[in-house]
Write a structure and sequence with these properties.
By secondary structure, the protein is of the alpha/beta class. It has three domains: 151 residues, HUPs (Rossmann fold); 177 residues, Alpha-Beta Complex (Argininosuccinate synthetase, chain A, domain 2), CATH 3.90.1260; 32 residues, no CATH class. It contains twelve helices and 14 strands. The strands form three sheets. It has a five-stranded parallel beta sheet, sandwiched between helices. A five-stranded antiparallel beta sheet has the order 10-9-8-13-14, with helices on one face. A four-stranded antiparallel beta sheet has the order 6-7-12-11, with no helix packed on it. A hairpin with a 5-residue loop joins strand 11 and strand 12. Helix 7 packs across helix 8 and helix 9 packs antiparallel against helix 10.
């Protein structure tokens, strides 16, 4: 018998309905937990809403610096991108939320934890893999896999019948998830992959067409793979990301519209805004271009798809992700220096990079006269590498 449940609560449609449904179904006390990850909402209003909806207690925790420093930055050090486009903004938030849920469950002596993720999506996996990794004996309640509602519209109808205020409407039924790193949009009117998203949907970025007519330059300084300064100003992890979100968003940078492969096997259309994260990703690759050995970079790059999959699938607290992280962080030891970028109407272009331990030597790279590299040496190098190709042709 479940007596006390800690619910990951956002105040959105699913979790607003979940409080009442959990109490009715299990007769249990429901404690709501809302993580402040920079979603830009009035969290005191969220707290009040949870209490009015039936929560016995509400935890609201500011996790922004921890989120950026301990989750986003390690992922950025790995250059993680899922299926070539998605910078994993929602994926990386779930393990932190789930970890804090487990902390509260242990503190409150709760029997179970719950989330509002659907039975079709990735988030159910991300939440629950984290729960079980950190507290193997915890009980998990996933309302979407149990309750009779079969659509977001049926949830809206239930909320209206029980006077539960929700933001989703029949006119704008798509689902959003926002944090300091990004905002995602999916479902509803976006389910047709041929339909262009409405122009008024976006919140973190202006359209490239409406961005300023003059480029903006920004300089980012890295220390061991972590961004530490913007335009010469040292900032905390969360403040640095906020600053870049503002600069990049004003210049229309960071929009992605893709059809991705969910872990459960369904293809899903997602639209994302990741303004500051896009700039950081491009800048980080630029500083690596002059500080990493070629073979080290290529070997690490071969592991990026696997690392990104682990984050996307929900294996943040797995031994394999932690192993890859140690390798990634070892590689970042000399990734220190500055990158200058030019932002203009949705484009982010690298225009300068420098590092105290740069492996780039103008004397070697130049097309002008120099005395270090003997061009005649290339002849034997080419012939040796061509040997197997010659043999292959002779055999034909």
């Amino acid at each position: 018998m479940i007596k006390k449940i800690v619910l990951a609560y956002s105040g959105g449609l699913d979790t607003s309905v979940a409080i009442k449904w959990l109490k009715e179904t299990y007769g249990a006390e429901v404690i709501a937990f809302c993580a402040d990850l920079g979603q830009g909402e009035d969290l005191e209003a969220v707290r009040e809403k949870a209490l009015k909806t039936g929560a016995s207690k509400v935890y609201v925790e500011d996790l922004m610096d921890e989120f950026v420093k301990e989750y986003i930055f390690p992922m950025l050090r790995a250059n993680a991108v899922y299926e070539g486009s998605y910078l994993l903004g929602t994926s990386i938030a779930r393990p932190l939320i789930a970890k804090k849920q487990i902390d509260i469950a242990e503190k409150e002596g709760a029997d179970a934890v719950a989330h509002g993720a659907t039975g079709k999506g990735n988030d159910q996996v991300r939440f629950e893999l984290t729960y079980y990794a950190l507290k193997p004996d915890i009980r998990v309640v996933a309302p979407w896999r149990e309750w009779p509602f079969n659509s977001r519209q049926s949830l809206i109808d239930y909320a209206e019948r029980h006077d539960i205020p929700v933001a989703a409407t029949r006119e704008k039924p798509y689902s959003t998830d926002r944090n300091l790193f990004h905002i995602s949009y999916e479902g509803g009117i976006l389910e047709d992959p041929w339909t262009e998203p409405p122009s008024d949907m976006y919140t973190m970025t202006v359209s490239p067409e409406m961005a300023p007519d003059r480029p903006v330059y920004v300089e980012i300084k890295f220390d061991k793979g972590n961004p530490v300064q913007v335009n010469g100003e040292s900032l905390s992890p969360a403040s640095l990301l906020e600053r870049l979100n503002s600069i990049a968003g004003e210049n229309g940078i960071g929009r992605v519209d893709m059809v991705e492969n969910r872990y459960v096997g369904i293809k899903s259309r997602g639209v994302y805004e990741t303004p500051g994260g896009t700039v950081l990703h491009i800048a980080h690759r630029a500083i690596e271009s002059i500080t990493l050995d070629r073979e080290v970079m290529h070997l690490r790059d071969s592991l990026i798809p696997r690392y990104a999959e682990l984050v996307y699938y929900g294996y943040w607290f797995s031994p394999e992700r932690e192993m890859l992280q140690r390798l990634v962080d070892d590689v970042q030891e000399d990734v220190t220096g500055s990158v200058r970028l030019k932002l203009y109407k949705g484009n982010c272009q690298v225009v300068g990079r420098r590092a105290p331990k740069s492996l780039y030597h103008p004397e070697l790279a130049t097309f002008e006269a120099e005395e270090i590299y003997n061009q005649k040496d290339a002849e034997g190098f080419i012939k040796l590498n061509a040997l197997r190709l010659k043999v292959r042709h002779l055999l034909k």
